[in-house]
Write a structure and sequence with these properties.
486 residues, alpha+beta, Alpha-Beta Plaits, Chitinase A, domain 3, 3 domains, five-stranded antiparallel β-sheet, four-stranded antiparallel β-sheet, extended, disordered C terminus
Length: 486
């Protein structure tokens, strides 16, 4: 086989590949065996007809088609590997010559990762939030814990914000009951919101035994968006009583004997969460600064594919109902054109991050070990509540095993960049990012999962068997911090 690479643009090449027929003998043998099983020829058992008899029956063209269909993908992959071309997406292949007995020639036009000059991570400087915990924050944590152990006591007075009411609800439209619009003995916290518009105002000040009717817009069901008359009848008002914040409560709510010990534990937990947030912030800030420091031409087809993935994902939750999706955007004060423009901007950012991190990984010869891949599989399987075996089957069925590997590889590449960057906090202190990653990377990965792949669908690695659907920023790793969502 002979192949040459012609640069069409910074992000696209044409590969010209020629294969002499004397290299195709094994392919012809397989083609004859396969076709012989499919064709019944009198006097021969299935699969036993000689090649010349088979050709006389089905024609030489059928044999050549079978050979070409097998050879072209294999030779393309071999040419990609031999030429060290970083292909992106699927190639556009055209067979240009079939000189029977002499030569098979074809071209493959494909997007490629452009050349880029990577900056020195040491030249990247970012600032993150300082690690501070205040007494007020600790008190807020304590109050939240007290609320978990609160008890509800029935009272003989009107309900107010923070109280609970036991109530019956019935919604009607034009005097007719709304399907599934009735609820009896329903417990509701006044001021919680999120159930029915106008409900909080209606029940505030009501006592047990009272009822009222108000108008609200239905937010679900067959009559979604329709105005309904809602009758609410309160049968009881209850107030929430918090336990006293003392040593006895500490013993009830924790392993500690004293309230001061519980406070210190809450402070330590708060600090740990802030450390994790700081590590994630450092990861995101470094990624943004590093990628922004590089000029990278983007393959248009790869970006278009990523935009399609993002739009598809957005519509999926609406069963691809464009009208419903449009209503949501209208409620948000956005137009479809604005959404599409934002999707393209996000897609460009995600694709660029992927390309840059892949270049970093290649430059540093980053590899992902079998143990790392196994840990990721176990981690992801736990997230989805399935066995590792089932998760692997799903990934393989979707053709995303390469994407999983690429996500891990990009995560490790990003971790190396972050460790090499200069990171200070808002108080001017140098941040020991390595220590933060050692302690917080696993949890930070949860936040990063869905990162700039926020979806990056099938982008940079989907072809060439290099593998990956999207990931730069949506990769999550159990051992390394990941890119921020794009």
């Amino acid at each position: 086989m002979k192949s040459t690479v012609e640069q069409l643009s910074p992000t696209r090449v044409r590969m010209n590949i020629e294969v002499p027929f004397d290299e195709l003998a094994p392919n012809f043998d397989r083609a004859y065996r396969k076709l012989a099983q499919q064709v019944r020829i009198p006097g021969f058992r299935p699969g036993k007809a000689p090649a010349r008899v088979l050709e006389s029956r089905i024609g030489r063209g059928a044999v050549l088609d079978e050979v070409v269909n097998e050879v072209v993908p294999a030779m393309y992959a071999e040419a990609v590997s031999a030429g060290e071309v970083h292909v992106l997406g699927h190639p556009d292949i055209e067979v240009t010559k079939i000189d029977d007995g002499d030569l098979l020639a074809f071209t493959a036009e494909v997007d490629v990762r452009p050349d880029m000059q990577l900056p020195d991570p040491a030249d990247i400087a970012v600032t993150v939030d300082a690690l501070e915990t205040t007494d007020e924050e600790v008190q807020e944590q304590l109050e939240g814990l007290r609320a978990r152990f609160a008890v509800l006591t029935e009272v003989e007075r009107p309900g107010g914000v923070g109280d609970y009411v036991i109530m019956d609800l019935e919604a009607t439209v034009d005097g007719e009951p709304v399907p599934d619009g009735t609820a009896n003995g329903f417990s509701y916290e006044i001021g919680a919101g999120g159930l029915l518009e106008g409900l909080d105002e209606a029940v505030t000040g009501m006592s047990a035994g009272e009822s009222t009717t108000f108008t609200s817009t239905l937010v679900a069901g067959q009559l979604e968006g329709v105005e309904a008359e809602v009758t609410v009848a309160v049968s009881a008002v209850k107030e929430r009583e918090l336990p006293e914040a003392d040593d006895e409560f500490a013993q009830l709510a924790s392993e500690f004997d004293a309230l001061d010990e519980l406070r210190e534990d809450l402070r330590a937990g708060l600090l740990k969460r802030k450390e994790i947030a700081q590590a994630s912030q450092a990861r995101d800030e470094v990624l943004e600064a590093f990628v922004s420091a590089i000029e990278v031409p983007l393959p248009e087809k790869i970006v278009d594919a990523e935009v399609d993935v993002r739009i598809h994902d957005a519509l999926h939750s609406f069963d691809h109902d464009e009208e419903q999706f449009g209503h949501l955007l209208e409620e948000q004060g956005r137009t479809r054109e604005e959404f599409d423009a934002e999707a393209r901007t996000d897609a460009e950012r995600a694709v660029k991050a992927q390309l840059v991190l892949d270049a970093v990984a290649d430059e540093q010869n980053v590899v992902v070990g079998e143990q790392e891949l196994t840990e990721r599989v176990i981690y992801q399987a736990q997230r989805f509540g399935i066995t590792p075996e089932e998760y692997v089957q799903r990934v393989q069925a979707a053709g995303q095993l390469g994407a999983l590997y690429a996500d891990l590889r990009r995560g490790k590449a990003l971790a190396s960049v972050v460790r090499g960057a200069v990171i200070t906090d808002s108080a001017g202190n140098t941040v020991d990012i390595a220590a933060l990653f050692d302690d917080a990377a696993d949890t930070a990965a949860d936040d990063a999962d869905e990162a700039a792949e926020e979806g990056a669908g099938e982008t940079s690695d989907e072809a060439g068997d290099a593998g990956a659907e999207d990931a730069a920023p949506d990769a999550d790793s159990t051992t390394e911090p990941q890119p921020a969502k794009a």
